[in-house]
Design a protein that fits this description.
Layout lengths: L1 E2 L5 E2 L4 H15 L5 H11 L4 H12 L7 H12 L7 H14 L3 H14 L4 H12 L5 H9 L12 H14 L3 H14 L4 H13 L3 H7 L13 H15 L3 H12 L7 H16 L7 H12 L6 H13 L3 H15 L4 H21 L3 H11 L10 H17 L3 H14 L4 H11 L1
Helix pairs in contact: 1-2, 2-3, 3-4, 3-5, 4-5, 5-6, 6-7, 7-8, 8-9, 9-10, 9-11, 10-11, 11-12, 11-13, 12-13, 13-14, 13-15, 14-15, 15-16, 15-17, 15-21, 16-17, 17-19, 18-19, 19-20, 20-21, 21-22, 22-23
The structure holds fe (ii) ion (FE2).
């Protein structure tokens, strides 16, 4: 049995399989589109390597697509059929992927967390734990702590140390420890200059600290800089668009939407999230976004049965509501209601977060700002459970602020703007709402 680049056993005797496995993981951490090709090459070199089969399965799960679940199941079946049985390490990978593909993110968190205690250098699993199971449940503190729990095993000589730091930095950011977060993010890039996640980590710090000018300078790259690294690349352009929007540069924000954030029709989950969240912000501050909602809603409707993440679903709701696609909105509402009638984590999420958000967006777009306001206020404490980052979920808060202003609920609006004034003091949006309230 051979070892991977961090010295952990891989259940193969093919050096070509190991080489491609390591390359796939390395390319995955740079968000390169060809990562999956290296995973395929590892499987081709040794189809009986269960770890290679599971690696591909995890990579497919990253698309957050229900349509891909049968393909993931095939990789799971091939891994389980390993002649002679699975190694302990592979058993951990398998348990995590099974839970993930069953959309049981809490259980996936548990088994992947246990795995990391046994295999603290298993960088790929750490990423799955971090991003797939904690991030998409809004576990802000665990995003930090899950990485700290393996810190005893990591130092600068371990391959992938920069990626470890990039994750730790993001964990610190979501936990509100911005100084440490920025330090880790910048140090990560010293070790792994191509770590797009570390670029993203620093962007989040700058967003949360309201450093819009620094953010615009931070994401100062040619538009084609990351063409082989979509879709995270487009999310980083979304962050730049947020900095521009926060600065009041609405024309530039809209131009960036067209050139880099949503340059072509896409049903990729992160593109739908980015696009809806940006168009809503722009329109909220008085910008005419033309026919963009209709173009986006067409894609959102086409993909609504495929989306796995509740966070994406809320953005689908937003796009459908804004484009006036009442039939599709009703269909989505029905799907959410059926899920809410079930049991467990996904059912609770649908009933306590997804449905209130969908209803609030629908009410807002129908001009019923009172209803939007009440629905958002009632569900506000639960939003975090839908996952995503603080910066992403801020859209919900902004819709609440705007609803309060538009509904003429002055005391509530003043209170929300007071909070926002401390957290986002330099935001053009804040000034806009203050002007609206004073008018
Ligand atoms: Fe982000």
């Amino acid at each position: 049995m051979l070892q991977d680049v961090r010295g952990y056993q891989l259940d193969t005797s093919s050096s070509a399989c190991v080489e491609n496995f390591d390359k796939a993981v390395a390319r995955f951490f740079e968000f390169r589109l060809d990562a999956v090709e290296y995973a395929d090459a590892a499987i081709s070199a040794d189809p009986d390597c269960s770890m290679a089969q599971l690696l591909k399965g995890y990579m497919l799960m990253g698309a957050q697509s229900r349509n891909l679940l049968p393909v993931v199941a095939e990789h799971i079946a091939k891994a389980e059929a390993k002649p002679g049985g699975l190694t302990q390490r592979a058993k951990g990978w398998l348990a995590g992927l099974k839970a993930l593909s069953a959309n049981d993110l809490p259980h996936a968190s548990k088994v992947l967390g246990q795995h990391m205690a046994e295999w603290p250098l298993d960088l790929f699993v750490l990423k799955q734990l971090h991003q797939q199971t904690l991030f998409w449940r809004g576990k802000s503190l665990d995003l930090r702590d899950s990485v700290l729990r393996v810190s005893h095993a990591w130092d600068k000589d371990v391959v992938g140390f920069g990626h470890y730091l990039g994750m730790l930095g993001f964990g610190y950011e979501e936990a509100g420890e911005y100084e440490k977060a920025e330090m880790c993010g910048r140090a990560a890039l010293q070790h792994s200059p191509e770590d797009l996640w570390a670029v993203h980590t620093v962007a989040h710090v700058l967003e949360m600290q309201g450093r819009h000018k620094d953010g615009i300078e931070w994401i100062n790259y040619p538009l084609n800089a990351w063409d082989d690294r979509a879709p995270l690349a487009r999310h980083i352009w979304w962050h730049k668009a947020l900095f521009l929007w926060d600065s009041g540069s609405y024309d530039e924000t809209l131009a960036l939407y067209d050139s880099a954030v949503y340059p072509a029709p896409s049903t990729a989950y992160i593109d739908v999230q980015n696009a809806a969240a940006l168009l809503w912000r722009l329109e909220m501050t008085g910008v005419d976004v033309g026919s963009r909602w209709h173009a986006l809603a067409g894609q959102a409707e086409a993909t609504m049965d495929d989306q796995l993440l509740a966070f994406t679903e809320s953005h689908v709701s937003a796009a459908l509501a804004k484009a006036g696609r009442s039939e599709a909105l009703a269909k989505q509402r029905q799907q959410l209601a059926e899920r809410a009638d079930g049991e467990g984590w996904a059912a609770n999420l649908a009933s306590e977060v997804s449905i209130p958000l969908a209803d609030a967006f629908a009410a807002y777009t129908m001009g019923d700002y009172e209803k939007a306001c009440d629905g958002l206020l009632a569900s506000r404490e639960e939003w975090v459970r839908v996952g995503g980052s603080h910066a992403q979920r801020d859209l919900y808060t902004q819709v609440l602020v705007d609803s309060a202003v538009k509904a003429g609920r002055r005391k509530l609006a003043e209170s929300l703007l007071a909070e926002r004034g401390v957290q986002h003091p330099n935001s053009a949006g804040l000034q806009y709402w203050r002007r609206q309230l004073a008018a």
